[in-house]
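Worked problem 6 (solution included).
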Amino acid sequence: MSGKQGFKCLLLGYGHIGKRHAAVIAEHPETELSGIADLTDVRSVAGYPSDIPWYPSWKDALANSGGHDLVIIALPNGEHIPAALAALKSGYHVLIEKPMGLTALSCQQVLELAEQQKKQVFVVKQNRYSPQVQWLKDLVDSGKMGKIHMIQVNCFWNRDDRYYLQQGHPWRGKLTSDGGVLFTQFSHFIDILYWIFGPLMVESAHMENLAHSTTTEFPDSGSFRFRTAGQALGFMQFSTAVWNRNLESSITILGDSGTIQLGGQYMDTVLHCHISDYILPQIPSANPPNLYGNYSGSAANHVQVLEQVVMALKGEKSAATNGQEGMEVVRIIETVHRLANHPI
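Solution. The predicted structure is:
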């Protein structure tokens, strides 16, 4: 820890989610913001902390500043790996926004360098901290549902021209800088599957571009079939072709002793719970989604993310999502793209 103020955090990227990180850092009693890098001079942006230095690029920030403890990467997807490698070489721990990267191989390079540098790598997977998702994991882990037979996940969101053609975000919709909807929109829900059920074996996949042929270099919709380590059969359907606003993010689980369904726009509502000799407990409400103007994303649980990272950096027991877990989610997505004949 550096000084009385706490862990010094260098923030790379000051877009929608970068601003969220800055606010959370300011609120946490054991962290302080030590610098912000963004291609745009954001010092005049409302809410920018006036005493924090700004750097015109993440490369400039890493080359011309020092004394940080943690580098938080909130850059376009395609820059996550280069920035993480550079931060590790500079001797800093790293927290990477999802996705960790766009290929499992590049993620592995980050993990190997972190081991050499004796630094920790974390990945933002804030949906794990939603009360409904935590309840679901505890329930599955308890065995009360018996043997799990089938899992169905539906993710139907809106991402239209308001998102892809918005000024200041030219990386969106590009294969090398965005990667696709499974990386940018739906990786949180693949992470939930991985977190609850362990490694997934993807058996088949299909992807199409239904509504974004002029705005994206990748499909906007698709489905894939998978098996869990426990041999449960699973399916995931996904699309960003929904008109005007997000429709749902849901998961249905069939076990030989019960059935569960979480739904709502962000998998934040228990829609069905019918389990032998089980009474549904009172579950706290989920945090609202992150709002980005005309569209919205997953749960705003970055407070919990940072708290778990701080605990890990202090050497305490932590539930922070590590780089290995982040890489496994990337591997699943990469496999879906390959089987659907849309490789990254």
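Discussion: The chain has a mean pLDDT of 94.
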